[in-house]
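Give me structure tokens for this 253-residue protein.
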Amino acid sequence: MAWVAAGSVMVSDWHRSPESREYFSKILHKKKRRKFGLLEAPVMPPHLKADIVRYKVFLSGKSGVGKTTLAARLAGLDMPNIHYETTGMETCAVFWPVKLRESGRILFFHFHLWDCGENATRRFDHMLPSCKEHADAILFLFSFTDRGSFEDLSSQMSRITEPSDRLVRLVVGTKFDLFMHTDVTERDITRFQEVLGVPVFRVGGDVSGGFGEIAPLLNALAENLWHQDCMHTSTSVPTVPSNSGHIGPEIIV
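Here you go.
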């Protein structure tokens, strides 16, 4: 699918505006992110109405690139201090409010993140199909400190997805804060984006200062998923098919 320019569908940096504060307060507790179970949702007062749209997002990448850490960053969970191989599947929920540019409508995106260890997908044939089943987006990860993980991206993307798949595809480079040890240059990133037409996002470092690091990735994910649904249904309000992996929209009350 064609990449959507940032801010063309949703208001850029809305999370920084005073209008958004009351919405974002519903995913915070004592200035830290709330942890939501898979069946939980932010509780909104009657005067603040928003629609929930749910999407399944699969995190793909070589062992050690930081899939589990990225999921923890996006969900506001404690990040592991040491690397360990994910032995099976792990899932978590991420809520992210946005404002549509044209209608001014507020949406709460519920991203259901699926993380699966590389060795598990190789040992058990059902793992990868389960992660891909009803997925709406795939985040392909590489590490800036592991050039092999970057060079593997093209084959990984062709191995996991088909051209006919209706999926949002984004690439995330982890450990960007370790720029002194980087094995991947800006020239490499620019060429990759030009050749494959897939944007690359950078994460790494301290996230205690707020949403600044994760906002561009979550906004891009939300914007492209919403646009994909709009294009699929040819309407400004996507009608979710009954066999889809996500449910929406539904009113938060």
